[in-house]
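Interim report, section 4.2 (structural modelling).
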Amino acid sequence: MAVADARTGSGDPPKVSLLYNPALRSYVYQAATLILIVWVIWYAWSNAAQNLARANMTTGFGFLNSRAGFDIAQSLIAYSADSTYFRALQVSLVNTLVVAACGIVTATIVGLLIGIGRLSPNWLVSRLCTVYVEIFRNIPPLLVIFFWYLGVLALLPSIRSIFQHVKDNPNAVFFISNRGIYMPAPIFGEGFGYVIAAFGVGVVAAIAYTAWANARQRATGQRPPVLNVNLALVLLLPLVVFALLGRPLSFDYPIPGSFNMRGGMVVAPEFLALYLALSLYTAAFIAEIVRAGIRGVPQGQSEASYALGLRAGLATRLVVLPQALRIIIPPLTSQYLNLIKNSSLAVAVGYADLVAVGGTILNQSGHSVEIIAIWMMVYVTISLVTSLFMNWFNAKMALVER
Amino acid sequence: MPRRFRKTPTPGKQQNDNEQRLLNMAKTIVAALVGAAVMGIGASAAQADTLSDVKAKGFVQCGVNGSNLAGFGAQDSAGNWAGLDIDLCKAVAAAIFGDATKVKYTPLSAKDRFPALQSGEIDMLARNTTWSTSRDSQLGFDFRAVTYYDGQGFMVKKELGVKSALELNGASVCVQSGTTTELNLADYFRSHNMEFKPVVFEAQDEADAAYNAGRCDAYTTDASGLYSIRLKMTNPDDHMVLPEIISKEPLGAAVRQNDSKWLDVVSWSHYALVAAEEFGITQANVEEMKKSDNPDIKRFLGEEADSTIGADLGLPSDWAVQIIKAVGNYGESFERNVGQGSPLKIDRGLNALWNKGGLQYAPPIR
Amino acid sequence: MTEISFVRDRFLTAEKPPVSESTALGWIHRNLFASWTDGALTLIAIAAIVYFLPPAIDWLFLSAVWSGPDRSVCLTVDQGGLLPSGWSGACWAYVNDRFIQFMFGSYPRDQLWRPLLVVAMFVALLIPMLLPKVPRKGLNAILLLIAFPIVAYVLLLGGYFGLSHVETPLWGGLMVTLILSFVGIAISLPAGILLALGRRSKMPIVRTFAITFIELIRGVPLITVLFMASVLLPLFLQPGNNIDKFLRALIGVSIFASAYMAEVIRGGLQAIPKGQYEAADALGLNYFQKMTFVVLPQAIKLVIPGIVNTFIGMFKDTSLVTIISMYDLLGIVKASFGDSGWITPVTPLTGLIFAGFVFWLFCFGMSRYSAFVERRLDTSHTR
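Predicted structure of the assembly:
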């Protein structure tokens, strides 16, 4: 501490009480904190142990290997009621990640559009975007979820009227009902792997070609056509392979069954409600971040690029956006994290995410401490990984600065 | 405001004060440590004797259904609780205190109910909870008296034309998560080689709303619950309960394990209701019946001179009288809450007395 | 003598601005049809408005049912009601019927003056607090953050001074939302300050604890913290040491808010120039004097908008207590969907729009206030 170090001048330093020794004080405070924390933990622990012992409860994670016994509506990995609790948790974690990933992509796109729209010189567009932001930012996400689930999706046509619709239009393949959106499911035939491989090759080739084009531009000042070639590589190449192999792809169409549509793919309303609510809610915040980011780049930067002869589009892409990104990324990270955490609201509409399935297990097995510990561990891990990735990305972006 | 800082001590001058403060600090820390140790010892000395605790605090804390299950545990618009489960809570309070109002209700969801009982937040759980082995053993509870013999059933819209649960192959089924119902549902469809799409809800009222809105083809829960939920539908007559009962659901009151005194009080409160019906004692004639010549009735009502039944249970000698005065006998309670006197109009069925073809049977009270 | 002057002594009369600058047409040209893409966007926007707005207004107001005793007024003939078939509109009659419940839950109807009095006191204390010109902010803050909660506690819960005891399970509706968020903020401010100071402390144990706590809580969803408070807390206490469910939700919300508040305050602390710390040290102030009199007042003033934003977030987040079956505004609205007296296809939408509007009103008001403070404080950096 500065006071202690400031003793200067000749002769003995004035005798200072031990009490004012910063080191000692620091030890005392820390010891007190430590004792307090240890005591709180010990108190909670011993009580919990006692309460559980009184109720003859076992503790530990061994119960995760017992049979789950309940079914899960949406499972992207193999699961049945005979699987273990642990498997159920894995299924639910996948579900959480799926809805979070879909939500993040949509929220980013919508947020970007709305954020740019708010800065648009078009009066009507900017007002509409402002209205959007002010509405969604100020309503709890849980309410938005209920709004979609109970207010909108529940009012869609019933499955009976869809059956009638199919009778009238036998060629329809795409249905929207209050049981979800039914659409044809792709069935990948033999050799479809080659198409995917071709796509991968195309992407790699496109990246390499872009790098070569950049190098050539730097060397000669001429830029070869990048966009068209890349599109050809990424889209045309797999399409050609696809055609050559004799189109190894067919579709499984949904047809009316006795109660529901059979076959095809269905996107359940629980997922839709959660996904729409998370995306639209977070998009409002991302829009504000994008707006602040773009406005944070001084006007002089775009003026300077115009003076250098860049057109508006190029100036935005090459000058303004890279600088805006540096302002945008840190708050964007926390919005992504918020979206991931808000996906736990799934429990309100019965989408089988980590919290919903964990809650069911908690209830069936009674192991509340373990389940809550698992929740915390998983979410903290997801948060840490996301922050690490975004920090890495941020650091990469910051390198633009000299 | 520089005056505030004048107290900054100058070294040396306040040496004594400082030492005093150091001493005080040390004292505080020691006191905190001792306090912690004492509290720890206090904790380990706690005994499982809910009956004494209840008597000491003066009321029974009863965990009941928080989602307004008419007939079992529901609150009217004035905030008064009523239902078969509520009557058991009242009976226990009447047996202990002679006053059925000495109950506090904790409304619980299916998820909250077990931790609430484990942690001691409630004294007894009367929330249409199924008695099963795992709950009795693994969760650390004790069940004994069954207040309602139930079974799981299905409700469907009449327009589907379904007459049996075996025709439900491929149906979407609404179910509340974390219940035995959810497990039975999976087992039933599996054992009959049928497929179904579970639509799972956290709270019962969410499941009700979803079924009403046509999210599912069928709704499954305990048959008694189905009758109660049917009343909530936009048009109750459009819905029917299918005849299959796919499980045994003995609903009873749960208490924490290793507390047999308290288990005795709770279960004998229920048996008293059943016994009263058997003896023909009702809310109206209980005073009259005290003068009965039947020794069984006299003993039951605490009128026998040297009877120690009440005292042995840790209750006043007129405990049964108080129970009957508060809620009537089991038959009266049943008819009032779920039977012909209620909108549910459920038949006695399995819940008739043993000598009338049902399962309700009270062990002899002697 | 004629003056020869090259300086012009008469000015031209000002020309009228060009048509494109003054008329409505010009404004439209500049703001809506500046370019082809602009024009296309405008047309799309107008089409969207024409498509969505009239039906929305019709649903919300024109076709809406405003009063009636039960669900039959909001059902069509085929659904067993009174309205012509094909009707759809908001059922405000239901909100009207349930309004008191949405505001106060099951609070005894003859005791409603108590929450109303609390609201009146709150408004009377809050408005002078929010207006920058009103003096005596310190006294006001003490009254609002210390005296008011005590009075409100006694008034709402009762049991003292002849007031009847109203148990917390009877509380509900907007009242619960407001109490949860107010208490959350009142606790999270001091707790957040302590945590933020701890996180910037040089003492490793204190710092580690603060960082762990903040990052752990910020890393998990509120709903798990609420589950922890509602399910685990009773387990962590001695049997019989029962805490009210409401209190447990309060603890959960406060813990969560403290972690977020700590980060907001830390931002303020970091923004204070090092010179301020050093100057305080040079004056011989000890740590607490330095913080209380020099650093924190400046830091907190800097982050007032951030604090208000945290408060808005908290206010919205309290709706999550619905999931642990407590009846805040959203919870009680949702619970009323299952009430057979008002079960209709339009009830959920109507109720949610009502709840959403109330939430929106509060949050929008707070965000406007935050923007106002931001503008007021931000005097030096305007371009």
